[in-house]
Write a sequence for this structure.
């Protein structure tokens, strides 16, 4: 049975795009996998968790390679945060393998909650740095502005 924690999150929104395609692409993959983990029925959850864990290792290794290649000044702090997330995932992987599916769902929700802050603060600085080093400028991100129509005030005569 799925818990209330399993409501899927939206995939990469404009607000999380950072302007360097390789980072945006791996972020989209992570969010799709986290969505799948959160929506997974019990029988599919262990495999969904493994996919998120494997992707996270590859994702963080790619970012750490880019940091090393471009001599990113904050790479130690950034890599430390990756290491902490992977340590948590390794611990929870054992619990999921032992049948504690709720631990996997809780970790999925924690990732979904953690990721926007990580992307906005650490990954955005990395994307900016990479674009500056490799392209000589700042990243460009085009965002859609979706505005809601105002609700008309009730007609007091009706």
């Amino acid at each position: 049975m799925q818990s209330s924690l399993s409501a899927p999150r939206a995939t990469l929104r404009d607000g999380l795009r950072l302007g360097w395609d390789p980072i945006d692409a791996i972020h989209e993959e992570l969010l799709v996998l986290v969505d799948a983990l959160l929506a997974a029925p019990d029988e599919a959850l262990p495999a969904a968790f493994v996919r998120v864990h494997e992707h996270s290792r590859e994702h963080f290794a790619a970012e750490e390679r880019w940091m090393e290649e471009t001599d990113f000044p904050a790479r130690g702090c950034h890599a430390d945060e990756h290491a902490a997330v992977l340590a948590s995932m390794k611990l929870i992987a054992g619990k999921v393998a032992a049948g504690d599916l709720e631990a996997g769902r809780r970790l999925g929700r924690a990732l979904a909650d953690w990721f926007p802050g990580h992307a906005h603060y650490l990954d955005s600085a990395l994307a900016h740095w990479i674009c500056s080093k490799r392209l000589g400028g700042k990243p460009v991100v085009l965002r859609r502005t979706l505005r809601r129509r105002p609700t008309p005030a009730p007609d007091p005569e009706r």
